[in-house]
Amino acid sequence: MRHQVRCNLRRILHAIGLGVYLSLAGVLCFAQQDPPKDGRYYESLARKAYQQKDYQSFLANMKLAAQLRPNHPRLMFNLAAAYALTGNQTAALEWLSKMTAMGLVFPADKESDFDSIKGSTEFQSILKGIEHNKLPIINGGAAFTLHEKGFIPEGIAYDPVTQTFYLGSVYKRKIVSVDKHGEARDFATAQDGLWSVMGMKVDARRRLLWVATAAQPQMSNYDPGENGRTGLFKFDLRTGKLLRKYLLPQDSKGDTKGHWFGDLVLNSRGEVFTTDSVTPAIYYVSRDRDELEMFLVDPSFVNLQGLDFTSDGKHLFVADYAKGLFEIDLATKKVVMLELAPDITLLGIDGLYSYRGTLLAVQNGINPPRLVRLFLNDGLNRVERLTTLAANDPIFDEPTLGVLVKNNFYLIANSQWGAIDEKGRLAPAEKLKDPVVLKVRL
Fold first, then answer.
1. What are the pLDDT digits (tens) for 116-131?
2. Cβ–Cβ < 8 Å for 72, 345
3. What's the pTM value of the predicted model, to 2 decimals?
4. CA nearest to 77, candidates 147, 17, 120, 4
5. Dihedrals φ, ψ of 230, to 5°?
């Protein structure tokens, strides 16, 4: 994808094989600018050392990278390989066992760097654990199907007043409503100025639909002159009329950073908070000023995605696709990265939702993609426990965002982002499927 924009982390993180992991690490779009040095810096040094077969240096730098980005599956996998290559079979097996305990699937059996441990009883036990992690976890079924191949949905919203769902299309640049009888119709289209439709939220009290939208090459009729444009659109649910656009200013010529609003959330006052995934920051539209403004930027941010408030509205949880979860005190704007229990990874979270004192997270940047529930400590700074609600469902083809409806979670199960290549060409019809919304019981 584009150098300055999303650099589709999802596909990168789905890559298999140590050599692939290491080579892709060097082309992540979040390039190291200057000090301070972080995990990506040491991972790049480890990659060079691995290519030069300097395995001691490979190990030393992978240890530093893993310390700075704990519970990161790619780093854990490569660290295990580094230990295996330097003769520490016990440590290699411990790291692979830890990945297995996280519920992950990874290609240990195919990686030649593990040849020294493949004959061990412990390694065979790890392979059995990986096979167990491939088993389906299904806690519900299809709620409805949108009979429109090539739609490529990302966002979904629900209006409890009319019992209507809204689905947004990445490729077709439109929003479709699906009523309680299952009848689908276009609600908004590219004629309203929509780019790819990302996260959406219904403000039922004020009868509004808020939409995050972004211009990017994987949409129909892409105009390179709009590269990196993004904004929030506000629609009237009663009439379907577009009420207002809140756009980030066009970048000046030569500015290659770009922007991408990926998801949004509303507080009790009807104010909107949205994440910029590419030039990572949080923006908001306050009720008083009714303008798009910068709320917060932090050097810890890399690739922001879903977000939601605590029940009291005093804290904001934000998912970072490349790092995990942040908690933000809205009064002080203090940013804290959540700690994790040893058997948990929060890499690759797309959608994030508060539910009865816990968090629901759609993880599509790990293998297998899954819907999980996160249980936090009283201080809201550590994830103590994770349970998997859905994984390895045959319907899944890159699940994306969802919406809570009472005690059920409705999830876009098969977005099929991979059906669009980097030049915006859609796969042939015979390779496409109708989008399915999965209903998961909570």
1. 999 999 999 999 999 9
2. yes
3. 0.91
4. 17
5. -160, 165
